Amino acid sequence: EYIELNEFCQHIFDATHIKYPDLQLNYKIDVKDEMYADPVLLTSVFQNLIDNAYKYSAPDRKVLDIRVQQNKKNFVILFKDRGIGIDKKEFNSIFKKFYRVKNQFNQQGSIGLGLAFCKEITAFMGGDIKVDSQMNVGTVFTLSFPVEVKKA
Ligand code: ATP
Ligand code: MG
């Protein structure tokens, strides 16, 4: 179905404020078309990336910037945190099932499936997920999905 991204994001951000009251969530949504997607699957992808941004950031650095943009071909959604960062050597591994980077933030309560799920779902939706990161500075996950313009 076609998703109105402003409204869709608002639902997620409202829930996130309640789930993580100490997360500073900044967002900018700048799109002109609706996005063809399954809202249940897209919500799960957002949820996983938000959970990670929260979990892998120190208590005084829980800040997440989300940008939703549209260019000629794609919707581009960026999740930028100020967390612990991910070493370049891990960029491929983190998308594998049950893979978890060894660090002090990774003790319990995680399975290592979140990003594998995000990768499968974005691929299923014809899109893509990429990571860029700097240790002790932060991480950016970028989702892109092809624009399918609504036929009249
Ligand atoms: P689950 O999502 O199943 O609860 P998880 O968070 O450990 O477990 P993934 O979401 O797949 O698993 O992430 C894989 C690994 O990538 C994590 O264990 C973590 O080390 C690293 N990682 C993921 N997101 C971030 C992030 N935003 N900042 C720093 N490290 C991250
Ligand atoms: Mg996770």
TrEMBL record:
Domain Histidine kinase residues, every copy: 1-149
Record organism: Sphingobacterium yanglingense
Keyword Lipid biosynthesis set for record: no
Record protein name field: histidine kinase
Classification of source organism: Bacteria, Pseudomonadati, Bacteroidota, Sphingobacteriia, Sphingobacteriales
Signal peptide feature range: none
Single GO term (MF): phosphorelay sensor kinase activity
Keywords: Kinase, Membrane, Phosphoprotein, Transferase, Transmembrane, Transmembrane helix, Two-component regulatory system
First and last residues shown, out of full length: 406 to 557 of 557
